[in-house]
Structure formats: structure tokens, C-alpha cells
Amino acid sequence: MGWDEGAVYYSDQPQFPEAGDAATISPHAVLTKFKEFIRNFEIEQNCFPYREALLDNPKRLVVHLEDLLSFDSDLPSLIRSAPADYLPVFEKAAGEVLTGLKMREANEGGVMEEPLTRDVQILLTSREDPVSMRLLGAQYISKLVKISGISIAASRVKAKATYVFLVCKNCKKTREVPCRPGLGGAIVPRSCDNIPQPGEEPCPLDPWMVVPDRSQYVDQQTLKLQENPEDVPTGELPRNMLLSVDRHLVQTIVPGTRLTVMGIYSIFQASNSHKGAVAIRQPYIRVVGLEDTNEASSRGPANFTPDEEEEFKKFADSQDVYKNICTKIAPSIFGHEDVKRAAACLLFGGSRKSLPDGVKLRGDINVLLLGDPSTAKSQFLKFVEKTAPIAVYTSGKGSSAAGLTASVIRDSSTREFYLEGGAMVLADGGVVCIDEFDKMRPEDRVAIHEAMEQQTISIAKAGITTVLNSRTSVLAAANPPSGRYDDLKTAQDNIDLQTTILSRFDLIFIVKDIRKYSQDKEIASHIIRVHASANKFSDENTDSKEDNWLKRYIQYCRARCHPRLSKDAAENLQRKYVTIRMDMKRRAHETGEAAPIPITVRQLEAIVRLSESLAKMRLSHEATPDDVDKAFKLFDTSTMDAARSGINQQINITGEMANEIKQAETQIKRRMGIGARLSERRLIEDLARMGMNDSMVRRALLIMHQRGEVEYQRERRSIVRKA
């Protein structure tokens, strides 16, 4: 009996179990699976989304990884682990399916021909959570990743070769070499494989020449993605990531857009790296799927759970929604009920409208807080920055026009210019809080005029002409020129801002520090109570939960509700607006001077926006006359109050006062010759030394200004005598 006698034993286990299933699946099998998925995946009976999407748009196909997983559990893991290998197979499968779905076409000779196989770009999307940019490390290289951020720069479109056409210098033999996708180049062979004939000179080393005209190209663009401001840890600089987009994704993104990106984490050799650092490579992401986070969802597609939605709807149906929301706004600040109401309206915002002729009307509400120091103005700004889904906080003195709008920067490696968005662009769909608004230079303040009304920023610098979106609300805080609000001055002297910028604010609050015994006692006890109980809430669980709830509710209302005025509310508003205009006209006629805050059509639109935001708090799709009344009341206590503030011209002037004013006028004329320029402060100080009352000198200057005898210059700092 031999040693090999007997039955045959076999095992069905794979030879190399460590390699996993990926090693055993052939590319042809994967191609067949992808084709089956595009052809046969159905959501419901006889509804094939991918087949129909491919026929609708044969250039690209958006594939959800969740659909792929439900069809075949192996395919997503293959794409995630080796996207660079399997995505071209997927694109080839899509091209072949498209060819199979199309009818045969007649050529010029009338003969029926099979349609040509076209390139289809596969774009991936998934509902998974994005990875933080800070966590991307070496373990993610060549893997599929998902990140989110704000695009801050976009380069010009370049042509990237997919196949390089080569010609041998010696024997004129040709060949095509494929290029690596993304920022990789082509590997050109060192030698020609032509076998020389007898007597023929052999091809030298490096004989290949590139023929650019016969190579194949696709469009490519590089973007710079920055972390979302709300994801950056305190005190750290935001991180940037280079993105490479190609084919149908180029020129779809402008700086300032919030993105969620699916891509392959890749590496490339930077041109400006050190000579010795051969093994060091720069990371970048080759984009294979883009989601534009639009304004409505204002921070990615916000997924609300059914329980949350139920809770929000229940809250919206309850009584006094407006009152309840106002109590949640800055609870640590005592009083200032009207400012809290305005902050609530600003956070919810009105409805943005697009007219048939392409004009867009803003729905965002702008608020200005003007007044004494220590009246919690900056605390309001900080609270709004923390509560708004998207917010940028900046101080007036440290902000330039370019920092607020957009700056043009030259790239160090390519030497070409690109745009970087500023605060107003980065806060697109949110709130910009500007503290110390009065300390800004006038030329920088002018830069935000367009952003506040048209909600765009136009740039024409260094050969770049473009328009960026800045659909933001502006909450600004300012002090009067003298530091405190002076009741002896007119409103124009106290509000030392130009009419052009004032008319862009929907609500203007004058916050005064009134000295009243009972009120001071209440404020003191409230502040002491806040300080005394501060340690008890050191864990901050309850507070942050409350803030987070309000943030989520604001997000939900902004995404789901876009109210409009009802017919009754519109008529009510029309009557009130006409009454205000008549009232202001009468006052101007009586006092002989124009109101410091003009009441124009912008203010009418402001009341419309306030009414819509009040309806939005209740998740109502229609603003009622009651909303208009509340909005009007808020407008009356803020902007109208500011317009009426300051010294009243109609104070009964006694004979003695009139005499003093006349004396002051005589002294001013003596001190200033015709055409002379003098500082207003210096003039008042000089006359005060002569024993004259400050307020009487100011009144005399005002009367002379109305008569046209003196003229204010340099933002009312200096006076010029005219006649």
C-alpha cells in the first residue's frame, strides 16, 4: 500500500485568510456589481433612481453610500479602503450602463451606430458625521474621509492632463502614459522599447518628448477649506486644508461658502519644500463629493430627531411664545426688555425674498445699540455670538475694510492672486457682532454699506472681479462721541454716525444709564446675586443645555418657516407707516431741522421683517395684525425714541436765555472771521472761560448752523464760518 492511497481531502478555506475578501474579488466582478447597482437599485416598486438620474444628467451621478450598503455590503468597504482603485471602476461601469440605456443613433451616412461610451463623474455622498480637520493623520492616507468647513480661497481653473502623449525623438514611436489623478504627475519611462534594425541607431536614454496638443485634459481647480469658526478651540488658530476639485465640480464654489466634502486624503510633493526633505509630503484632499451647506439649514443639513420636532411644535403652540423666548435671552442681564426682544427678532430673522425680476430682498435684521458705558451692550453681543448658529465677533478698532469684507492675497508658490473672505463673508447665513462701532475709521465703515443692504460684497482688485454673498445680520454697539449720552446735546450730536449707515439699521436703541434709587437698588441686588450664585453652577450643565436648546430651536425655525404678511396685517402696516411719515414731516416743519434718524422706506421694510420674525417664533406661516402691532411697538420704543431724543428745540426760551444766546452768537462771530476753521470743543472751552454757559454756546452754534452762518466739517469736529 502506497502513502498516497485513499480518499482525496480538500478544504474550502482561502489560502491567505489575512488578506480578506478584497483580495479575492476580481476587478471584473466589482465592475459587474457596480453595473447591477446602477441598473437595478430601486427605492420602491419600479422606481430606479440612479438609472433615471444618469439619463437626466449623463455627465455626473451622485451616489449615496447608504444605498450602496443596502444593495451590497461589500462595495462601500471597498470604496472606503481603496477609493483611488475602485472609483475609476465605478465610473467605467456608469459609462457602460449609460451606453446600454441609450438608443442607437444614425450617423451622417444614415447607418445606425452604437452610442459612444462617455465619461461619467461619480460623486459620493453620505449621511455620516464629518471628521474634524485636526484629527486627520497618517492613518487616513488614501482613505475616504468626510470633513466640513468654509471655503476661504479658490484658484483659477487649470487644465490637468489625464493621458500624456509621448513621441520618441529617435524612432518617432508614440505612446500614451496615464497621469495620476489629483495633484500627481505622470511617470514618463526612461527608455524606448523599440528594437533597432541592423544599421539603425538605438534610442538613447530619456528619448520621450511630450506633445501637449495631443494629450487629454480635464479642468482642475484648487480650493482652500478652513475650519468652521464654531469648531475652533479657544485661543487656537483655525486650520486650513487644500482641496483639489476636477471636471464638473470646478467653478461651483465661491469663497465664503460652507461646505461638506467627501474626498480621498492624499499627499503631494510641495514645490517649495526643502531639498533634503525627500520623504516629507504635503497632505491634500482630492474631492469626490461636495455638499453646499446652504443658508436655510445654516450649518449643514441639520437633522432634527422626531422627539425634538415634537417638542419644538409643542413649544410653538403654547401661549406667550414671544415672552418665553425673551426670558431665555441673556438671563444674567437685568432689565433692558426691549433690547432682549430686538435680540430675539435678530436671531430668528425675517424671510428672504426673491422677486420675479431677480431682485433679492433681505430678511436679516440689523440692530444698533448706542449709549453709556456699563449698560451691558457688549454682554448682549457676546450672548448673541454664543446663541446664533453661525456668528463672528469683531471689534471696531481692530477691524479694517478688507478684514470685514474680503482681501486679495498672493499665493507664495504659484504667484497668482486669490480671494480670502473676511468676517462678513464667513458669517454668511448668521450674525456679525461689531463692538466699538463708533471707533471704526469712516472709510472702513463705508465698506459694509453694501453688505448690510444688498447682502453682497463686490470686489474689483488685482484683476479679480467678483461678488461674494454676505447674508448676515449686523448687531453693532457704539458709544456717543463724548463717551456718555449727553441730554443737553441734540440727537444729531449724540449719534455721531452718518445718515447713510443709520438708515440701514432696522432698530436703533439708545441705552442710558439712568440714576434712579429704586432701579439702582434692584440692579445692585441682581448683580450681587449673580456673583454669589456663580460658583454653584460651575458645571454649567443646565446653562449650556438651555443655550443649546435655544440654538436648536432658532435653527429649526429658520430652516422650516418662511412667513409672509397677511392681507389685514399689510393694510394695518400701511396706515401706520403713512401716519409716522406725516408726524415726522410736521415735527421737521415745527423745529426747522430734519430728524437725525430718517424714516424712509427702509424703516417700513424693517417693520415687515420684525413682523415676520415674530411669526417665525410661533412657527406660523402668516404674520398677523397682532405681530405688526408688536413690531411697531418695538420700533417705536427704539428707532422712533432715538429720533425724538436730545434737547427739544421747542423748550420755551425765556428772555434771559435768548439774551445769553445772542451774546454767545456775537462772541462766536468775533472769535471767527469769515472762512476761519476752529475746533468746536476749543471754541466752547474758550467761551466758557469768559463765563458763558456751555449749553447756551451749543444752542447758539446750532441756530447759526440752521441759518447757514457756520458749517460743520470733519464729522462735526470743526466749524467753518461762512458768512
TrEMBL record:
Main EC class the enzyme belongs to: hydrolase
GO molecular function per UniProt: ATP binding; ATP hydrolysis activity; DNA helicase activity; DNA replication origin binding
Matching PROSITE patterns: MCM_1, MCM_2
GO aspect biological process, one term: DNA replication initiation
Entry keywords, A to Z: ATP-binding, Cell cycle, DNA replication, DNA-binding, Helicase, Hydrolase, Nucleotide-binding, Nucleus
Domain MCM C-terminal AAA(+) ATPase: 321-527
Reactions it catalyzes: ATP + H2O = ADP + phosphate + H(+)
Pfam hit, one: MCM
Entry EC no(s): 3.6.4.12
Compartments where located: Nucleus
GO CC field: MCM complex; THO complex
Family the UniProt entry places it in: Belongs to the MCM family.
Subunit structure: Component of the MCM2-7 complex.
Function: Acts as component of the MCM2-7 complex (MCM complex) which is the replicative helicase essential for 'once per cell cycle' DNA replication initiation and elongation in eukaryotic cells. The active ATPase sites in the MCM2-7 ring are formed through the interaction surfaces of two neighboring subunits such that a critical structure of a conserved arginine finger motif is provided in trans relative to the ATP-binding site of the Walker A box of the adjacent subunit. The six ATPase active sites, however, are likely to contribute differentially to the complex helicase activity.
Protein name: DNA replication licensing factor MCM5
Organism per entry: Arabidopsis thaliana
